Each structure stands twice: as C-alpha cells, then as structure tokens.
C-alpha cells in the first residue's frame, strides 16, 4: 500500500538505503589501500548502476504489492459471498442509493450541465432590456434597439432577433397550423447549426417585399411533404402566401430559450419588413448575441452599458424609460427557472445515498465486531494495521463496485420512470439517459461510498486491543448502545431522514395549496383551441370571428363560446403595455403596466369569470362604438383605491391600422383577477378590450360544453374546414390540461421528494432496528445478569427503549435544526406556507419518532422476553 499511496517516501527510503550500501562498499575498498576515486569507481561497478537497481527493486515491490492486493480482493470477495444474506442486503441498499442518484444526475446533467447543441455555446448570450420606469428587468427589445446594438457594440461578433408567431400551411385538404419563428436572417448562422438539407438564410433574404424564404422543421417536412429531398427550391403555401424552401432544420433542433419561446417550431422565416423602422418602444424581439472569441461576459456587459447610454441619447422615449441591458449567458438563462428545483432534488437524492451508506456502515461495523477475534488473531500472527485496514476497505470496495453496477441498472429504470411523469421543462430533453459523464459520476459516487461505508468499521478495527480480545475468548458483552460509532450512525440517519421528510412535507403542502388556488376561471367542461387569422384584413377578421362564434354557439352540446387573444396559462408571447388612469400625468403614470387582452363579448362568461362590478362586454361594444374596457380587481384597487372603477377613464393601448396606439376608454366592468401566468402568483393587473376595437391575428377560443369537451373537437374541425379550407385548428385541448401543466413542476418535485422521504424513513427505521437488534444480541449476557439480580422484563424493556429513543431524540433535534437552515433554500419553490411551517415540522417529527419507536420496539421486546437462564447459559 505504501508503494501506491506513499511513493515519494518509499523512493526517498530506497535512495537512502542504496547510498548507505554504496558507502559500505567504498569503505571496504578504501581498506584495500585504494584511492577514494578508485574505491568509488569499483563500488559503482559492483553495484552495476544505482538507477538500474532502483528499477529492479521497484519491479519486485510493485509485483509483490499487486499480488498481495489481488489476494486481498479475492479474499474479500470470498468472505462476503460466504455471508450471502449480509452481502445481498448491503448491495441492495447501496444500489438503491446509487440508482436514485444516477437517475437524478442524468436529468441534472442533461438540463443544467450538458453544453447546448450549438456551435461554441459558451459564447452565446441573451440580451434583456431593463426598463427602470416600468420596473422590467427581463423585457424584450425593439427593432431599432437591435439595429443600434448591432452597429454600436465592439465585443459581440453578431446579434440576432427572434419572435414567435403562428402560421398555417395550406395547399391541400389538411391545413396545418404551426408555431412560426420570425427571425433576423443571421439567426441560424449565429447559432451555428447545420441544416439537414439545403442551406441557412443569407443576407440577401433580408430584402423586403419579395417572396419569403423558409426553413422547414424536420417534423413538418416528414408529415406534409413525405421527406422529399427535392422540396429544396420549391414553393410552399403558408398563411395565404408562398415561400421558397431553402433548408430543413435538423431533427433534434430546439430553441433553448425561456420566457414564451417554445422549444419546437414548425418553420423559420426572416422578418418581412425593416425592423429598424419600427417604433423604438415596441418591445417584442428576443435578442441573442455571440461574444467574440476571448471576450468574457463581464467585458461584453460593460460594452453594452456604453451602448445603452448612446441609444438613450438618441431616442427620447428610451431615455425616459432609462433603458439599460442585461447580458445573460444562454446556458444559464435557459434553465434559470428549473435550476432551484433540480438542485433541491439532487440534494435530496444525495441525502438518500448518505442514509444508505450509514446503513451499510452499520452492517459492516456489526460484521467487524463479530470478526473481532479473527482480526486479533491476524494481528497476533503479524498482520499490520495497514493490512487489516486495507482488507476492510477492499470489502467495502467489492460491495460498492457490485452495487455501482446494479445502481446503473436501477438508474436506467429510474430515468424511464422520471420521463414518464416529467413536466414540460423536461419534455424537450430526449437526450436524458445513461451516458459517459453519468457513468463517470457513478464511478465517483461508488468510490465515495466505499470511503463512507468503510470509515466507521476501519476506525473501530484500528482500536482493537489484541490482548483484551483474545483474553475474552468469545464473551459477547458489548458497551451500551449510547456509546461508540453506532450511536453516531443512528443519529446521522435520523437527522437526514427528518430533513428529507420536512422538505417533502413543504413541497406536498405547496402542491395542495396550488391545487386549491382559485385561478379566476372554471376549467372543467371547457374546450380550447387556436386559429390563425393573419390572412384576413381587419374588417374581414372581425366578420369571420362574429360568424364563427355564432356557428359554434349553435352546435349541439355547446353552452357558451368566447375568444381571447391570450389564453390563461398558455405559452403564447404575452401582450403587456403601459396604461394611465384619468387624473394622472404621464410622469405619474410612468411605470404602470398591465396585461392587455382582446376578447369577444362571450369570453369571460364562457371561462366562468366572476363579475364584481358593472357589466361584461355585449353586442353594442363594436368597432365604431365608444371605447370601453373591463379591468380586473387587482388593477382597479391599485388605480382607484377605495373607489368604484365603473365610469372611470383609462388610457389603454389598442391595435389599430396605425399599429399600437393609446386611446382613452371607459371602464364598464370589473372582474376577478385571472391568473394568466402562474397559479402561484399574481403578476400584473389585466385590461380587457373588445375584440372588434382591437383585433389580433392570433385568437384562442373557449367553448363551454355540457358533456365531454373533447367530443366536440371533430365537429368543430370539420365545420372550420367547410367555412375556410385554408384554416386549421391547433392546440385543441381541454382547459384542464393547462391547469395540470401549470401544477406539473410542483407535482413532479412533490412526488420525488415524497418518495425520497419515504425511502429515507424506511431505511432509518430498518437501520435502527438492525443496530438495536444486534446490540441486544451482543448484550444478552448482561441482560441475563440483570434479570438474575432482580430486574423485571419491563425494566429491561425501558432500558433498551430509553437508550434507543435517546439517540433518536438527539437525531430529531439535530434534524430539526438542520431542516431550519435547509428549508430556507426552498423559499422560491414553496407557495402558501412558510419555510418553517409549524404544522409540517410537527408532523414530520411525530412520523420520525414513530418510525424510530417501531424500529427499536421489537428487539427491545425480545430482550425483555429473554429467559435469564438461557442468556447466562449461552455464555
């Protein structure tokens, strides 16, 4: 072992030994009346070279060491497999802990650690606009802002923009609506991916007014065009126009963005107009930048700060907003919302492995105690402490190696189980699996498990006194359970188990609270779908929606119908804008933002929204009528605290033929706030505008059904094709699907945390049972003496229970203190409760105490029921 782990010391000893031997030869030749130089020469000739001798010694020592190591490994394997019950339990326990960590790490690596599948992904970063007056720190940019950054920056090699809209492929009997990525022509080149067929966009396709160039997704290419490679250069019909196919996106192409940018798009097209000519304060464009080689994010951020100052000086409206920029590395920003949850799950899996290691350490410790006489005999026969320590470590190595292999198999099964219940943020991660980085992690984990499992028995073995052990000659007395390494291990298991249980309790309570949230609408019996109206002009769009709503309302089984520009809990890019209540100056109203929704008269009723004051929209709220709006109670209470909002005037942004224009409108109703973004928080107040007064190209319909809502889907799709054969439905799903998707991340964490906690609790109870049972079996002589001297069964029962529950109490106290600090890191994940929720802590403590009680009751009862004569005779 010294050759392997103390090589420098061994080499120094070898050099000193050879130098001493050389000195002895020199002295011998000096006695033969040779000169000092001649004596040294003859000594070196006799030795035939110091370095050659060193190599020979090294070879012999290494061969001996490796042979000895091989013998010890074979002996450890034979020893373990002579106890199949012990070995099976230890391997299964460790494999369970390693398997859980393998599965979770596979997800963590795929989402948090694996480089994004783009060219030099570390150079990619998002540029977010920060608008001080409106308190927005992650706002998109406008076309002029993008253009100014491109021309003014010094440290970015390229800057591109993207916006997600809808498009409908037509030209046959089955039109298909898809998510359409509108991009600046340099966007594909900036990402650096290779198209499956064809090419990416070229700068010439930035010319405006010509035919679109389009890159199809692999899925659309296969579904609609049969994977025909001759599609390159041909035209396809889309959204009432035509586009020339220049390339096919790779099969695994995805957009790893956050904030309303879907991972998968059906096609990619360049913008059809000059973005630099759009309003400077029309924020819709997501900006992606590539840093120049060797440039750090901090340097690029400093450069962008200077660019922001130059832009503010040129655009008055941007100066009023005090525009600045935030550069966020794409790899980090894409996972910013899921990182806390995954780190929490990974930590929980680590706690499970620690408990497994503590259990196996207890087993090895008990095994080492039962082999105390064997170890003493080996020591008496000349085995060194390092050799015995090595033997203990090698037994742990054999166990953990086999457990690691079994853990990989369990981890593989665990990955498939995780993917079956994955929420949306894992749905687009098909590369989650067992790969080389995961296997390297398992190898490191197995080695760490060796150290953790073998540490306790190694320490105990090193304390063995040969004389005392041999003199006892089979006596089975053992110190009290309260003392020694076993006490530390029991306390550690209880502490870790309680921390996991409290964390799981907080997440389960969070899930219950979120599921109990009133979202402001009734999701049951509600069918939703989207249509794309971009091929219709303004008035034709209004007419179509009126007629289509009337037709839907007349279908059998339909109770009510309505439409809105942005459906609650959907991932469609949000529409939020400033507003100004009457009586406020523009300066006073600066910073006021609200979500804007264009809706038809029947939408809020179909959604089951609650009217608090005034009225809903009706047939009189036409395009040519007076401008009216509805607001939610969040905005009404903020704008007019303690007053009625009905009849108040408010300046709201409308969609007109001239673009987005602020118009004064009258508030005719107040509705209860609808949680459009998240079930766990209210983001902004909401303003509803009659659809005819602010028509949008994208529209989501809500159909309240009397029976199963999905039963209407086929009828609605057929009716739409009869009305317009170039129009298609998309995202046809019940509203409950959106609610379930909103709760899926919390449900995912709660399920896994609950599983971890249950497993930890079971392992802790088994660990306590094993330790107490072994301790009692080793102390039967003591119990027999106590009972022979008059101790009653109840006193023996209380003795064992007092010792075991005393350790459990220490573990509970330490676990409560540890959970107090650990649970504070879960603040961003929990909802509706405190991180130190008393009910959760109390219940967890009771459950852990009950598990500990059950774990030690049976061995304590066995000790109390023992016959003192038999106990003494066994000695």
Describe this structure in words.
The protein is an alpha+beta fold and 875 residues long. The protein contains 28 helices and 22 strands. The chain has four domains: 2-65, no CATH class; 121-333, no CATH class; 339-515 and 742-873, no CATH class; 526-707, no CATH class. The strands form three sheets. Strands 1, 2, 3, 4, 5, 6, 7, 8, 9, 10 and 11 form an eleven-stranded mixed β-sheet that branches. It has a six-stranded mixed barrel with strand order 14-15-20-17-19-18. A hairpin with a 4-residue loop joins strand 1 (124-131) and strand 2 (136-139). Helix 12 (339-370) packs parallel to helix 16 and helix 12 packs parallel to helix 24. The longest helix has 44 residues, at 735-778.
Tell me briefly what this model is.
The protein is α+β, with helices and mostly antiparallel strands and 875 residues long.
- Specify the overall morphology: globular
Percent of residues in helices comes to: 40-55%
**Structural class per helix/strand content?**
alpha+beta
> What is the count of structural domains?
4
Secondary structure tally, helices: 28
Sheet-strand content, in percent, reads 15-25%
Q: Overall mean pLDDT score? A: 84
The counted number of beta strands is 22
Alpha-carbon Rg, integer? 37 Å
Note the gap between the termini.
Answer: 40 Å
The description of the largest β-sheet is: 11 strands, mixed
Stretches with pLDDT under 50, minimum 5 residues: 1-5, 473-477
């Amino acid at each position: 072992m010294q050759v392997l782990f103390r090589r420098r010391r061994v080499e120094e000893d070898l050099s000193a030994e050879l130098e001493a031997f050389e000195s002895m030869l020199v002295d011998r030749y000096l006695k033969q009346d040779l000169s000092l130089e001649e004596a040294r020469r003859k000594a070196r000739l006799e030795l035939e070279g110091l370095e050659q001798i060193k190599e020979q010694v090294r070879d012999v020592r290494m061969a001996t060491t490796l042979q000895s190591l091989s013998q010890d490994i074979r002996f450890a394997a034979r020893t373990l497999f002579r106890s199949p019950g012990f070995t099976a339990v230890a391997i299964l326990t460790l494999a369970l802990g390693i398997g859980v960590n393998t599965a979770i790490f596979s997800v963590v690596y795929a989402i948090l650690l694996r480089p994004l599948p783009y060219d030099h992904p570390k150079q990619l970063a998002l540029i977010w606009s920060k608008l001080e007056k409106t308190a927005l720190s992650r706002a998109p940019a406008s076309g002029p802002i993008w253009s100014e950054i491109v021309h003014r920056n010094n440290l970015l090699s390229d800057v591109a923009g993207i916006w997600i809209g809808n498009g409908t492929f037509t030209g046959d009997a089955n039109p298909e609506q898809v998510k359409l990525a509108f991009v600046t022509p340099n966007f594909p080149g900036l990402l650096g991916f290779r198209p499956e067929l064809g090419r990416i966009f070229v700068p010439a396709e930035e010319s405006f007014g010509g035919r679109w160039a389009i890159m199809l997704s692999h899925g659309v290419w296969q579904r609609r065009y049969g994977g025909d490679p001759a599609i390159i250069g041909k035209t396809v019909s889309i959204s009432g126009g035509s586009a020339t196919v220049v390339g096919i996106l790779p099969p695994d192409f995805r957009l790893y963005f956050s904030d309303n940018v879907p991972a998968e798009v059906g096609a990619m097209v360049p913008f059809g107009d000059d973005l630099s000519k759009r309003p400077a304060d029309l924020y819709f464009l997501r900006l992606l930048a590539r840093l120049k080689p060797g440039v750090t994010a901090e340097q690029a951020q400093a450069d962008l700060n200077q660019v922001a100052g130059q832009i503010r000086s040129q655009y008055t409206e941007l100066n009023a907003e005090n525009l600045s920029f935030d550069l966020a590395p794409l790899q980090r920003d894409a996972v910013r919302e899921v990182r806390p949850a995954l780190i929490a799950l990974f930590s929980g899996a680590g706690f499970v492995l620690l408990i497994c290691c503590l259990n196996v350490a207890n087993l090895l410790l008990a095994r080492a105690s039962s082999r105390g006489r064997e170890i003493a005999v080996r020591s008496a026969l000349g085995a060194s402490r390092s050799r015995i320590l090595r033997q203990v470590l090698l037994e742990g190595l054999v166990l953990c190696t086999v457990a690691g292999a079994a853990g990989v198999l369990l981890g593989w099964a665990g990955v498939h189980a995780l993917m079956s219940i994955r929420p949306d943020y894992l749905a687009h991660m098909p590369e989650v699996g067992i790969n080389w980085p995961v296997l390297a992690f398992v190898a490191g984990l197995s080695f760490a498990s060796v150290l953790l499992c073998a540490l306790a028995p190694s320490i105990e073995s090193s304390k063995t006194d040969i004389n005392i052990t041999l003199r006892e000659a089979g006596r089975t007395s053992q110190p009290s359970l309260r003392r020694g390494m076993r006490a530390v291990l029991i306390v550690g298991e209880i502490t870790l188990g309680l921390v996991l249980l409290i964390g799981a309790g907080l997440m389960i309570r969070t899930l219950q609270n979120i599921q109990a949230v009133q979202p402001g609408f009734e999701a049951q019996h509600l069918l939703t779908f989207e249509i794309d109206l971009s091929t219709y002009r303004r008035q034709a769009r209004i007419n179509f929606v009126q007629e289509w709503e009337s037709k839907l309302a007349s279908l059998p089984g339909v109770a009510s119908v309505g439409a809105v520009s942005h459906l609650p809990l959907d991932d469609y890019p949000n529409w939020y804008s400033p507003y100004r209540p009457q009586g406020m100056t523009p300066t006073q109203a600066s910073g006021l933002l609200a979500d804007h929704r264009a809706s038809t008269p029947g939408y809020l009723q179909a959604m089951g929204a609650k009217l608090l004051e005034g009225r809903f929209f009706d047939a009189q709220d036409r395009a040519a009528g007076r401008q009216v709006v509805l607001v939610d109670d969040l905005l009404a209470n903020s704008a007019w605290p303690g007053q009625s909002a009905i009849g108040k005037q408010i300046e709201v942004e409308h969609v007109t033929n001239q673009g987005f224009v602020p118009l004064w409108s009258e508030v005719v109703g107040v509705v209860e706030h609808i949680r459009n973004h998240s079930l766990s928080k209210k983001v902004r107040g909401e303003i509803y505008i009659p659809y005819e007064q602010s028509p949008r190209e994208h529209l989501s319909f809500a159909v309240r059904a009397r029976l199963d809502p999905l039963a209407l889907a086929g009828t609605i799709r057929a009716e739409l094709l009869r009305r317009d054969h170039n129009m298609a439905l998309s995202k046809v799903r019940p509203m409950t699907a959106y609610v379930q998707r909103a709760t899926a991340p919390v449900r995912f964490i709660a399920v896994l945390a609950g599983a971890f906690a249950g497993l930890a609790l079971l392992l802790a109870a088994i660990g306590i049972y094993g330790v107490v049972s072994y301790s009692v079996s080793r102390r039967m002589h003591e119990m027999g003496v106590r009972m022979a001297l008059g101790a009653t069964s109840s006193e023996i029962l209380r003795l064992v229970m007092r010792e075991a529950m005393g350790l459990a109490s220490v573990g509970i106290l330490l676990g409560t203190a540890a959970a107090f600090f650990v649970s504070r890191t879960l603040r961003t994940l929990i909802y509706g409760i405190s991180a130190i929720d008393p009910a959760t802590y109390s219940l967890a403590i009771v459950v852990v105490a009950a598990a500990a009680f059950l774990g030690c009751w049976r061995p304590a009862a066995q000790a109390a029921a023992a016959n003192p004569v038999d106990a003494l005779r066994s000695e």
